[in-house]
Amino acid sequence: MRQIYINESDSGQRLDKLLKKYMPDIPLSLIYKMLRKKNIVLNSKKADGSERLCAGDNIKLWLADEFFEKSENVHKLNPIVKKQDRKVGKMYEKDMLTAKDIVYEDADIIMINKPVGVLSQKAASGDISVNELLINYLIKKGAIDEEKFRLFRPSACSRLDRNTSGLLICAKTYKAAKKMSTLIKERQLDKRYVCIVKGIVNEKKVIKGWLYKDGSNNKVKIVTAEFPDSKYIETEYTPLRSLGGMTLLEVRLITGRTHQIRAHLASIGHQIVGDNKYFSSKSNEDVQDYNTKDINTVNTKAVFKKYGFRYQLLHSYTIKMPDITGEFSYLSGRTFTAPMPEIFEKIMPLP
């Protein structure tokens, strides 16, 4: 017989979902059968799996050892990515997050400054993403043990594109994942980005449109009227300073869609510098040198060559929390900032 004790950080989960995490190789149909036969009980009483767990609950499992053996191998708490087999990419040379990457951390959440070149979540089984680097960090820190790892796997609550840097909220506990996911889904977070775009932008503006995905090239397109399968979008941008035919913008996502900032700005002729997906070859040709005195032109290729980057200059800069009551009220109204990357300051220095 084995027992699972539910603590505060694991409360709120459905019993069947937690059991599936604990025994991922056991089909749900068999888990339900074990519940019906009272081989699995909650607080010494029969359960059907739909119960919401509370801190202090006790789950007893009268099951043969083979039910657990495969799952225990799955949940072995060893470093997930090692330097010798790391596939993170050339831009991030570590096998876990470091203190420099951490913007904020408490017992439940961790906010990181995601480096360029790192996936937020796996796209394929062999990928290494922020989630793996996060788990390695928590292992090294001694902040997670095998029992906790069986019940909840720390992970990012949202996504940034591989080559977009900046603030990313990650959850260390189930209750934090649930709360942060709700705030994101209900668009309660005030998220601001900074980016460097082609051309001179002189005024703050809100632009609107409809976004739809073009499956043939994994890009999104912006149209001015509703289109089949399109989604409404709003983007607010504010110019901060201009130099050499480029403008540093602060961008607020009023809606949050895949590639929204990149595609929406490109649709009005202000492509993000370095964005090969939405920055056409024609845009790279209609310009001169970065140091030109003509503030309306910029040679993107010259900028690439001078500063040695090949990715979009887009950075998740700040996240402001809404008014929060209850357990996470300590975060209410707080603003978190990921410092602007050095490349931004080099290309667009303060006057």
Automatic annotation (TrEMBL):
Residues 13-75 form the RNA-binding S4 domain. It catalyses: a uridine in RNA = a pseudouridine in RNA. Keywords: Isomerase, RNA-binding. GO terms for biological process: enzyme-directed rRNA pseudouridine synthesis. InterPro entries: PsdUridine_synth_cat_dom_sf, PsdUridine_synth_RsuA/RluA, RluA_PseudoU_synthase, S4_RNA-bd, S4_RNA-bd_sf. GO terms for molecular function: RNA binding; rRNA pseudouridine synthase activity. This is RNA pseudouridylate synthase. It comes from Johnsonella ignava ATCC 51276. The lineage of its organism: Bacteria, Bacillati, Bacillota, Clostridia, Lachnospirales.
